[in-house]
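Subject: DUF2255 family protein structure
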Amino acid sequence: MTTWSNDDLERLGDANEIQIAPENGNGETHRPITIWIVRHDDDLFVRSARGPEGRWYRTAGTTHRGRIHAAGLTRDVTFADETDPAVNDQIDAAYLAKYGSTPWAEPMTRPGPRDTTLRLTPAE
């Protein structure tokens, strides 16, 4: 399994927003949309603000591949569901710590968005 470099972790984890473009079934990426990203330890995570109904999330959940852009970086990634409740609790805390000054942070920790937690891994 490929891991993030320290530089990628710092730059992407510190980015306020990223552009995410899941790959569709024919190998092309969708038009990028802007979402939040959080870092926990040596991993990066994203959630769909619209919960399971988010279009980008549905596509990512089908193909498990895509591309992200942020902090001057472009990286091909794979998406994996994060279902461990303890890890999701830590991701909740990361969202609140990073985005807690906005009114949208707390809703990202509720069922719906929380159920869409994806771990990003660099594509091999």
